[in-house]
Amino acid sequence: MAKIYVIKLETHFDHKEQKARIGTRSAAEAIDAAVDRKVQIISMSWTIKQPDSNSVEKEKFDSAVRRAVKAGILLFCSAADKGLHQDNDSPAASNPTKMFKIGAAKPNGNVWDWVPNIRHLDFIIPGYEVAENASLDDDSSQNFQPQTGSSVATALGAGLAGLVICCVQLASIHTQMSRQKGHPDTPSSLTLDDLRHVKNHENMKAALRTIGTSPDSDNKFIEVWRLFGKATKDMAGKDKEQQLGVIVALAYKFRAY
User: Domain named Peptidase S8/S53: which ranges (predicted)?
Assistant: First the structure.
C-alpha cells in the first residue's frame, strides 16, 4: 500500500503578476523534509522562479535537490504552463537531467495549449479537465470542479511511477514465495535487485516508455491503457494467485535495463 506524505508550502502574493507564489526557501525545506522521510518519489506540482545566481536561496534549493538525487529519489515536477514563452523555472532548471518534467495533455493525446515546447518535456500526461474519481454514493464528488494544468499531470505521473514500483515489488515477493516452496526461478522472475533498479531515474524512464507512447506526440504521451487496460481485463474474475500472475507478467515488461 502506498503512503502519501503531504507537505504544505509557504506562499506569498505577487502583486506584479497578481497571483500566489511559492517561497524558494519553503520549497527547499519541503524537499529536505521529504528526503528525511526516506520517500521514494517526490511529486512537485508547482514551479518557482529561478532564484538569482549565487544567491543564498538558490544554493539552498539546489542543495536540497542534489540531496534528493543522491538519495535515489524519483523527482517529478511540472512544466510552467506559460505557453511558448521560455520556461526556465525551477524545480526543473535546478537539475534537468534528473527530473521528470511533466506537461498536461488533452484526452486526445495532444499537448495542452499552455504547455511550453514539448521537446523540453519528458512526458505529457492527461491534465485537461481531470475529474475526481469517486464512488456513486459519494456526494462530495458532485461539488468537485474538473482541474486543468501540468500540476495535475505531474501528480498523475508520480502516481504512475508508484504503480510501476508496486508491480515490480509484488513480482519480487512472488519470486521469494516461489523459492520458499522449492520452485525454480523462471526467465520472468523478478528479484529485489530488479526492485532497486526500477527506482533509478533512467530505468524508470525506460519503464514508462515501455507502457506505450504516442508517435504523434514525439513519444511523450503515455498511453496507459496499452498495458494496464489489458491487465485489468485479464484480472477480472480471477482468484488472488491468478491476479498475481498477471501482475508478474506485467512487471516483467518494465525490466528494460
Answer: 18-165
